[in-house]
Design the sequence.
């Protein structure tokens, strides 16, 4: 351990779990908090690396037990957050530590004309993870109840219909064996300002900046309201939300990693038994090895 | 450096480059060779990690410059090899070190009935990488000139037609801006025997074993002949082959990494210039930061 005062007790960086009965406000949750974790950045970075071995083992078992089957278990990690909240860092440092053969990331951009001509879940559903896989959504169907609500592209009745459609969709995924993990990367307005400033001040970051990012930033209070409303309406038993404080990138990463670990532990995947006679195959193999 | 006798000169693990005029035999190439690299496993592992920084930088530049455009540069890494030759380890340790947002892996399994009803490239072409991306094929259209030739599912005339179709397809990809990198992971018959034995002896590896793997192993000489023929027919200026000795997994990984690096260096991607007025956006941003 590089952090000499790190606690000896196991730590569980939980983020803020949103109960199904939640009546709070996302602005009451501290974007600089580190719930469930004592220690600073160095301890956090150690924690991320140390937990990779368990993540590896669980992911390989999930793949071994369920892939290629018509049905079976899977995990869907939905990652939402304002611009600069660190979604890319989650993909890179948490998801990127997992064997890429067992992970499928889908980044949802602004919908195409064809996608817009269908109901909002039409473009989402085909990207649900196959059995044995970890699917990751970088943005998701939640854009349709956040940006659409903020800009008034959908009225309240339509937004309510979408909440119901989302809950039904996620229940269906759960019923088919998918553990749905939803994380909101929660940054402060001040921290977003600093991160956008860095993008503007560094020529190698200009490509990540779009003038429209500032237009959206100017709507911050409306985004927070829409976020609170969406969390209240869609944190269900089947698919609860976790608000992950994200002003400290290192904390956000270990909290998302922890949720992924919990999802995999709840599946408790096992190495599948051989569907062949091991001794018979050993004998066949050894017969081919005499000439070497 | 953990390997105290490692050479101070930069090392270039090249694998065996197959010239367009090649008239050799794959069996003449040593599966335990380490062409272009002096040093053992420890030095090789160090080399893999040390080269990740350049790979990272080049990949991010490629993505920054070309993604989201209607046209632009990309890389396609085609990975072929017999069972147990280490394709999974390449995905894990070479491709897996790259930001997963910039990589798309496609694993080609036995074709479905629908896929079989089309010409062999029908299922391949849609997985060519988009601009800015690194596409990776875990097995590929080369199965259609290897397993099909070995089993006689296609006659010589048809195999020749497929070589031509492959060369035309890869030329077209190159013309559209894709650098096509093709690596054959070359293991010995003896090494495959050891690796299959490990899969049979360890219950946590049984899921990777299929009795048909031994059927294919019994056809080893025919696979080597088909490989030699495919390398001769399809190592073109546009898309040359590299035979990567793969009995030493650490060497195979640095040799594939080197080919990926060369492909990216040849593109020489640059940070794109801002398509907005930086000072104007800085002023707009700063106006939003006064309240924090």
Sequence:
């Amino acid at each position: 351990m590089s952090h000499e005062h790190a606690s000896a007790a196991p730590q569980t960086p939980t983020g803020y779990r949103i109960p199904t009965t939640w009546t709070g406000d996302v602005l009451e949750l501290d974007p600089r908090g580190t719930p469930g974790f004592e220690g600073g950045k160095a301890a956090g970075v150690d924690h991320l690396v140390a937990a990779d071995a368990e993540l590896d083992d669980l992911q390989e078992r999930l793949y071994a037990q369920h892939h290629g089957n018509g049905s079976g278990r899977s995990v869907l990690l939905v990652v939402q957050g304002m611009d600069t909240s660190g979604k890319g860092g989650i993909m890179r440092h948490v998801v990127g530590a997992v064997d890429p053969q067992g992970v499928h990331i889908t980044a949802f951009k602004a919908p195409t004309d064809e996608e817009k001509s269908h109901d909002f879940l039409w473009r989402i559903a085909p990207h649900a993870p196959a059995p044995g896989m970890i699917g990751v959504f970088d943005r998701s169907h939640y854009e349709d109840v956040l940006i659409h609500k903020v800009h008034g592209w959908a009225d309240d009745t339509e937004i309510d219909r979408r909440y119901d459609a989302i809950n039904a969709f996620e229940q269906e995924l759960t019923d088919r064996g998918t553990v749905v993990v939803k994380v909101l990367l929660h940054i402060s307005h001040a921290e977003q300002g600093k991160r956008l400033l860095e993008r503007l001040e560094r020529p190698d970051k200009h490509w990540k900046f779009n003038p429209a990012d500032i237009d959206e930033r100017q709507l911050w209070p409306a985004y927070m309201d829409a976020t609170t409303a969406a969390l209240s309406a869609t944190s269900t038993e089947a698919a609860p939300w976790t608000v992950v404080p994200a002003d400290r990138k290192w904390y956000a990463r270990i909290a998302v990693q922890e949720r992924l670990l919990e999802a995999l532990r709840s599946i408790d995947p096992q190495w599948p038994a051989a569907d062949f006679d091991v001794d018979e195959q050993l004998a066949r193999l050894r017969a081919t090895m005499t000439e070497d």
Q: What stands out?
A: The longest strand of chain A covers residues 178-186. Chain A has ten helices and six strands. Strands of chain A lie at 16-18, 74-81, 103-107, 134-138, 178-186, 241-245. Residues 1-7 of chain A have pLDDT under 50 and may be disordered.
